[in-house]
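USER:
Make up one protein:

ASSISTANT:
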Amino acid sequence: MKLIIAIIQPTKLEAVKEALSRVEVYRLTVMDVQGFGRQKGNAEAYRGREFTMNLLRKIELQIAVNEDFVEPTVSAIIEGARTDPEGHIGDGKIFILPLEDCVRIRTGERGPEAI
């Protein structure tokens, strides 16, 4: 089992959800987050003064999958989150972590069956 964490542009959420549906991944958690990487924020004007916003709004997806779904899930996220075929700085990141255990609260099932 793996936990896939993806940080994407907010405008790409629907495209990523559609791409995940095509590979039969329907369970995910979505969170609003803020951060910066190579983009280093952007300059904005407020009341005639320019200031730099260091933290940019992003969306974090958390998806628990069994081993067979890791590569299809990653490919679907890349497909949906890229701004164009080459991609751009700020398109996001995907992290793949080992998932030690999973428990379905309703039934008490554990492991891959609980996902």
